[in-house]
Amino acid sequence: MRLALLSVLFAAAFAQTPPAPLQAPWEGVPEGFRGLPAGRLILPAKRSEWKKQRAEVKRLVIASLGELPPRPSPSKVRVVHIDRRDGWRIEKFVFHNGVDSDVPGYIAIPEDGVARHPAILTMHGHSSSKENMFGYQPTSQDVAELLARRGYVVIGIDNYFNGERKGLGPAGSLERMERGSDQEMSLFKLNLWLGRTLWGMMLRDEQIALDYLVSRPEVDPARIGAQGMSMGSTRAWWLAAIDDRIRAVVGVACFTRYEDLIAIRELRAHGIYYFVPGLLKHFDSEGVMALLAPRPFLALTGDRDAGSPPEGMKKLDDILTRLYQLHGAPERFRSIVYPETGHVYTDDMKQRMTAWFDRFLKGDGR
Length: 366
Hints:
Elements (H helix, E strand, L loop, with lengths): L1 H14 L31 H18 L13 E7 L3 E9 L5 E9 L6 E7 L6 H4 L10 H5 L4 E5 L23 H13 L4 H18 L3 E11 L1 H12 L5 E5 L5 H6 L15 H4 L2 H5 L7 E6 L7 H17 L6 E6 L8 H16 L4
Parallel strand pairs: 4-5, 4-6, 6-7, 7-8, 8-9
Antiparallel strand pairs: 1-2, 2-3, 3-5
């Protein structure tokens, strides 16, 4: 009970982190770290040319994740508990990821008589958990009931070093910390030794959850979205980049361009979990996000979020706007930047999130 309370208090404190002070790009950055040999994504003039370029961009993105072992069958997922609610239910499930650990998760299912529902894969932030998203330890990331009552099936799992998976890394209980930073670092090191990346293995777990989601008879596999905050936001657009089964994305916070993160001296604002080798040699994060087009992508970010430099957000907005225009679908991308706002998931953001999914997973997409 004490650990659960501490987790809720920490998540609440993190959500209320005061806005980061503004800094001029490259101010205070030592000379040797300026002018990095970073690659650039050069958009072609024609959509047909982008189709060829996209294949190579996707190859490079997937290659940066390291070795990704084959995923286990969704038939091996075990439902271990059912929590009945008014008009919907939550099933707790567990699967072994086929490599190193059991992965617990929840799936919320409307009981409304509809045969096939649209579905949302929801992803928690750093030092959060599935409990935060499904109302058992409520924080601003609690979205399951909101979405389930709107007719969505909602699924979410614990990340490698969060929730019930704390203390289950390479050193076991020696690394059972509230933030999980020791376990995160050990997993990062071990996966590098094995030719993998921690980020790749995290995304692979989400793909296993997605495999299970599309196997459920209550789900329409052609109408699946992904959403999350912070680390969950980054997982949402990375997952959509490598897996076309995600048909719409909402990312709250962490609309991050990496070179601009260096420019404002905020590499420290992100955990080590998502750093992958070689990516920046080819292109910045716009190369990953570009793989979403023309699927709907909504980014909701505070302008004082330390992990999302405003200059970088402007560049991403410009690049992705031009790419979606190239596809003839400018309405399918939108970046909303909230003034004087930090690293938060507000009620307005939730309203925009649900409206986005209603429009593109339930409506006609116009």
